[in-house]
Design goal:
transmembrane; alpha/beta; Lipid_A_modif_metabolic_enz; binds nicotinamide-adenine-dinucleotide; NAD-dependent epimerase/dehydratase domain-containing protein; Rossmann fold; binds 2-acetamido-2-deoxy-beta-D-glucopyranose; three-stranded mixed beta sheet
Length: 485
């Protein structure tokens, strides 16, 4: 069953630090937003301030559209969100702006990584349609997009084909990030991972294939590129092969790794099938094997239990105020440590802490419109989100291609080092303690970033230290926000 999410408040922010008057093209596009109630008036005051600041710097105008998305429960169409294509200095330089009609279907767009990808695409003027079942996402993305809850395992939930009904939404790109993400949970509940990570990916790929068949006859745009999230988990523990290159064999030791690797297989056969069949304008695909991604909005509480489902709150920029603790030492360890340091709890390391990981930063544009944020926090740093968008926008000529890239920094640190850094970044009195190691945890992990640097021109630009600083700042602000609401 599909229902619309409660209306969210939204508007766009202004990137004060990155605002480059010389590059402004004066084309502040209208964006689909919802407005409502109290928080809107607070945001309006904030936007008025930001607008004044922007106008003082350049004579560009800013439009905020209102209510163009209906809140009608019967309206089951998936509404795209339009971006603002505003240009900024330096950090966005390598990601081009949208060309006419470019429109992205983004699964998992409410999640930690997905929300940053949505922001980045919207900034570059892309139309974005989010598909997320809200099982783990919070919709604290900065545009606070309205979206329709959709489950990637149900094909009926997909946007209709361009020649059916009155839905005129067309797509040119697909980013597939929706997944169940806990290695440990996958051990306990492999069926869930089979259904969502493998079955869901199969649905996404089949949908693209069907969509493109219909698009041709309907005169609609075709999807030309699919980028999907794979994982370093597929390498497993292969100390002799460090630093890991894409050519390393499969060594996964969990259903999570298995389903991600088989998803890559689906992508590969999809691409090869099109080439063999001589499909015109075929879809190319890229699987990105993320190492340990960290940054703002990462939920310190991985979904171990499968118990309570977190819903986004009325204030879409904040976490729900309470949630319980689950320890993980892989993804999420930085957010877990930061939260412990912030709240004065013990920073608990599972094992001796000598294990190494490559931590790669997601992206930050800290809380641009929230009243709790100061103008000084408006800075942008990004890595993983940029890698995804670079892979997405890379042109392919001729036959379709399938590529796999690691997304990492190339520098690993120990968990002990990390714990010390976290403590320092929070100026915290937390004790660093050790518990038994978790079974199945890999000792050494390190990554060779050369493939992505050659293939999609992605080089990590945010050091782990700077990323940590940004993430710590976000956690402090988020804590402040939570205690006020
Ligand atoms: N965070 C990391 O360090 C890391 C490392 C390797 C790979 N990855 C991969 O990157 C992707 C994004 O991870 P993340 O860290 O942002 O996790 P996340 O849980 O924050 O995001 C995943 C999103 O997918 C949604 N989702 C889950 N099941 C769904 C379903 N059946 N239908 C629709 N939506 C569904 C969730 O609600 C959530 O918003 C995942 O595919 C994950 O496996 C992440
Ligand atoms: C989406 O479907 C999967 C299995 O197909 C299920 O496990 C999950 O709970 C569903 N999501 C929601 C929010 O109902």
């Amino acid at each position: 069953m599909k229902t619309r999410s409660p209306p969210s408040t939204s508007r766009e922010g202004v990137e004060v630090d990155d605002f480059d008057p010389l590059e402004i093209d004066g084309r502040w596009q209208q964006m689909d937003v919802k407005s409502s109630g109290e928080s809107n008036s607070r945001l309006s005051r904030r936007s008025a301030l930001l607008l004044a600041a922007a106008l003082a710097m350049v004579t560009a105008s800013l439009f905020v559209g209102h209510g163009s998305l209906g809140s009608d429960v019967d309206d089951e169409r998936v509404a795209p969100i339009r971006g603002t294509a505003y240009l900024s200095r330096d950090e966005f330089k390598d990601v081009r702006t949208a060309r006419a009609g470019e429109s992205v279907l983004l699964t998992g767009g409410l999640g930690f990584i997905g929300s940053h990808v949505a922001d980045l695409l919207l900034h570059r003027g892309f139309e974005v349609t989010i598909m997320d079942d809200e099982s783990n996402g919070h919709n604290h993305n900065e545009f606070c997009q309205e979206m329709v809850p959709n489950n990637i395992t149900v094909v009926d939930d997909f946007p209709s084909f361009p020649n059916t009904g009155d839905d005129t939404t067309q797509f040119t790109h697909v980013v597939h990030l929706a997944a169940a993400i806990s290695v440990a949970e996958s051990m306990a509940n492999p069926v869930k991972y089979e259904n969502i990570n493998y079955g869901g990916s199969e649905k996404v790929i089949n949908w693209i294939s069907e969509y493109n068949k219909h698009a041709g006859s309907a005169g609609a745009t075709k999807v030309r590129k699919l980028v999907a999230a794979s994982s370093a988990a597929i390498y497993g523990d292969q100390p002799k092969l460090l630093p890991l290159q894409e050519s390393a064999p499969y060594g996964g030791i969990s259903p999570y790794a298995d389903t991600k690797y088989r998803m890559e297989g689906l992508m590969k056969s999809f691409v090869e099938g099109q080439n063999n069949d001589g499909v015109a304008e075929p879809v190319s695909a890229v699987a990105l094997r993320f190492f340990n991604v960290f940054g703002p909005r990462q939920d310190p509480h991985n979904p171990y239990s499968g118990g309570s489902i977190r819903r986004r709150t009325a204030n879409c920029c904040s976490f729900p105020p309470t949630y319980s603790h689950f320890a993980t030492q892989t993804s999420g360890v930085i957010s877990l440590f930061l939260e412990a340091a912030l709240t004065g709890k013990d920073i608990t390391i599972l094992g001796d802490g000598a294990m190494t990981r490559d931590f790669v930063f997601v992206k930050v544009r800290q809380c641009p419109v929230h009243p709790a944020c100061s103008a000084s926090s408006l800075t942008i740093r990004k890595d993983v989100a940029r890698a995804i968008v670079l892979a997405l926008l890379q042109d392919v000529k001729g036959d379709a291609s399938f590529d796999v890239y690691n997304v990492c920094t190339g520098k690993s640190i120990t968990i002990n080092t990390l714990a010390g850094q976290v403590k320092q970044s929070m100026d915290s009195n937390s004790k660093i303690t050790h518990l038994d190691p978790r079974e199945g945890d890999i000792r050494e992990s390190s990554c060779n970033p050369k493939g992505a640097s050659d293939g999609i021109l992605f080089k990590s630009a945010v050091s782990q230290e700077v990323g940590l600083e940004k993430t710590a700042a976000w956690f402090r602000e988020d804590q402040g926000r939570r205690s006020r609401t």
